[in-house]
Amino acid sequence: MRVTLRDVAERAGVSPMAVSAVLNGSGSRKVTVTAEKAERIRQAALDLRYQRNSMASAFRQGRTNQVAVVFQNFGRFILRSTYRADVMNGVMEALFPHDYTLSLCPKLMRSGDAEFISDGRFDGILWCRPDLSEASANTLQHASVPIVMMHAPPGTVLGVPTFCADNDGAMRRAVSHLISLGHERIAFVIDPVSEHSVEGHARADALQGAARRAGLPDPETIILTRDHSVLGRYAEPGAPHTALVCFSDELAGFVLESCERFGVKVPDHISVIGFDSSPLCETTTPRLTSVNQPVERMAFDATSHLLSLIRSSEGGEQAAASTSTLYDCQLDVRDSTGPACSYL
Amino acid sequence: MRVTLRDVAERAGVSPMAVSAVLNGSGSRKVTVTAEKAERIRQAALDLRYQRNSMASAFRQGRTNQVAVVFQNFGRFILRSTYRADVMNGVMEALFPHDYTLSLCPKLMRSGDAEFISDGRFDGILWCRPDLSEASANTLQHASVPIVMMHAPPGTVLGVPTFCADNDGAMRRAVSHLISLGHERIAFVIDPVSEHSVEGHARADALQGAARRAGLPDPETIILTRDHSVLGRYAEPGAPHTALVCFSDELAGFVLESCERFGVKVPDHISVIGFDSSPLCETTTPRLTSVNQPVERMAFDATSHLLSLIRSSEGGEQAAASTSTLYDCQLDVRDSTGPACSYL
DNA sequence: TTGAAAGCGTTACCAT
DNA sequence: ATGGTAACGCTTTCAA
Asked: Do B56 and A53 lie within an 8 Å CB cutoff?
């Protein structure tokens, strides 16, 4: 049979509560046992090979010391992109020193509903799903555990702090770089999945805003499906754009590959900019100019903030006004951008 | 206040037990409620916005639907190596379809003791720490939850199934490849950390066995500390070896870098073989010949087996004799191995 | 088929 | 400073 607190208490000749206080850090009050008694208790626990029942404790205290990270695509580390690994590293760095366990929960990853976020298994949630549905936004807003979002513009969900790239600043940098190279007609390229994400819209809007401010025509948005043949036009005179700003490095990588296939020369015919400045940028041909997003630091900050929310919510404090953090994003200029094509 | 089963039961005019059966899948018995009543219950739950308390349930049932993965080095995804991501992918692939949550628990990652493995938070443990101490081996053996190990030769811990590379076969392949290139004097290179791992010893032994069987002299083991100057000798005549078999790709990568620094030409002066055949092999100069270890599949298999152990242990069955699986490892020949240097 | 009641092991509260 | 007691929310047995 399982050895319980009671057994230990009995053997040590003390009350269960004393054992709890000594062995399990004494929940709230200070330790209230003499050193001698504490030693006896510890010895008894050792003799009996006492193992605490964490579930009983978690149940009683309403705390699990677990934080869940919710990614978008079910869950697979994509070797082409370091994004997930970056996030995980930042999260672990924030959690582990405080002995919080990091969990990946399939129920939370699955599409639609965020139905299970408040079922008590997690003390807090780091929400990394930019594909926010109306339904889950609502669930997030009324959740009974602290939540922090990444990759969503401030105010996306009322009361939920966000940690997000400064898309406006990023796009201003991109546009300014392109202008300095003589570009005027720019397009935003996005994949059909990201197109529906909050950040997809945010970046499209940001690029538009930056272009307008610079006196350029409104950038067209190209939703790039499996068929990339639309890129073929950039090899010929009269192409509608001289520069493409892509939603992600991964997408930009595909664009580069397709351009090569269609005989479109980058950056001679068209300039291409990615987003994330991941290691992938160094391996493409040509090397990819990209906006640098400090993913790991964002994840670390977001998680640290989440921990502080957890602590204060346990103190019974009411949540303060939700803060949001924007991250300045530099443009890492590599070889995929160059002077605007002159013969179009 | 929290909405409990009782509240729902009250509103629906039924007993808490009925609600439990309908909403939470009815633990053991079949559903014992009429459709009409079930509907009423569901409606009541919806009205009251009932949220199950997972901790209470887990506590009661002694099941958490969580599996922990324990890595060696505290926890950081190393971008240079895809090992951790590979493991995680295999694990997720096995767990998620069955709705098991994957947890990374710092307390388990920290050095020494495996003190917390049986505290009820996890239904099973995937142990990926080759650095097995006597103490934790003992803890693992007497744990009250199912455990499965990776990267440990069969029988490393009594009763714990292992999923491991077939190091003997791998080394036989490596030696045979080297012999075909005219090599005779081989060394095994390992870092000071892995040197203490079970698999470190296993591979050293395997290489020795393979060399002996082939009639070669016993391979020396070189423990490579921070100072790689020992590699310098391979640029000069009279070097003691013509081929180095390294414990890991990462280590082999460092060896290649140091060789370049010391003017040692690979593979002209010395041949180098790595272990894992990770993407890193394609990016080194020269491209690294390496033993291919199917990490993701190993992790998948190990996790699937763990799940089956969990299921049978919940059925109250006694654990069968522990099975162990060895994985055949091909040698991926790239450019870091060549004919044995003739002028030494 | 349904309901009542008894715990699961721990911690919080309130006496002493 | 210490110990008794109750309660957390659920599931399971047992009786109806």
From this structure: no
